Please model this.
Amino acid sequence: MYQRAKRFVHAPAALIIFFALLIFGTDNAFAEKRYFEMSIDEVTIKVHPQLTYTVFGFNGQVPGPLIHVKEGDELTIKVTNLTSLPHTVHWHGIYNNWQNDGVPNVTQPDIKPGDSFTYTFIAEPTGSLWYHCHVNVNEHVAYRGMWGPLIVDPAEPAKIIVDKKPNKEFIMMFSSYASSWAAKPGFGGLPDDVPDYFAMNGRAFPNTQPIRAEAGDVLRLRLYGAGGETHSLHTHGHHFTVTHKDGFPLPSPYKADTIRVGPGERYDIILEANNPGRFIIHDHVDVHVTNKGKYPGGPITIIEYEEIQRDDDWYAWKDKVYDGNYFYQESITKGYGLFNHEGHKGKPVKKKRKKRGKKKKGAEEK
Ligand SMILES: [Cu+2]
Model:
């Protein structure tokens, strides 16, 4: 009797849960399927007025496009190699199955020139993840700009984010260049190299860009050690709160004014814009704020408060042509998807091979 009564009570309860799930959904209702395509292109970028560098850019740019998705999204990403050397893509931080992990001769053959490879994976865990090539990383990742940000938004933001309510986000990826290898793709990344240009989103000061803010803004900066060197970011006039490491929310966020970002690492920091003025943010590894030995250079930006004029004739950036998406701060507000940025694009490299191709084509036509 008792058993039967229990079953009688449970059946409607199960029905209620079933319909509640249908109406309100589960965590999976947050997720979507997304398909993206990326090419890898051989281009030159202007790192600095005196340094043009040949890179293998995802969609022809450094950093590669911003991929912004939601926790649990099912991603399919087709990558086509239009360069003259092999590559792969590793999705750094993703809980991937091994066949999509992008390591040549371990999880797949490398993607040969002209070939494509399609990666499929679920976007988890959340946070500031990234993607990069895994072939000859000492050259392709260190110098040739083969990386980009992959931001996975959590279904439920961390408490510190809910509390601080950042209203502007900036992505900063650090790397360096050895100018001796600038025009020699396929070479470089050796122990005795001398990196002599240091960069934030692929460019060295003065080719970097300011962060424009207003008093009262709460800025979230996502810092990436994209290249082979350790950088030590220091903010003048402001401290910040370190909220995440490698995408994971810290159990105890902490305050600092300098943070060391090693190769592969990511830190999210929140900075409250409460001191109107012009304040430099720079790499505190002193040699990094030079370009070929000349100060100032490297990973330098300036917080320019909108309230403060920028026309002092001695101001280094008084005539700066402003790019308001240099840190993907516009793209990140545009919802989910893959976002290219014109300002990060390089110039296609003209290959001598093409001439041969033309001759051949002409010969066939005859
Ligand atoms: Cu590569």
User: Anything to note?
Assistant: The domain at 159-330 is CATH 2.60.40.420 (Immunoglobulin-like).
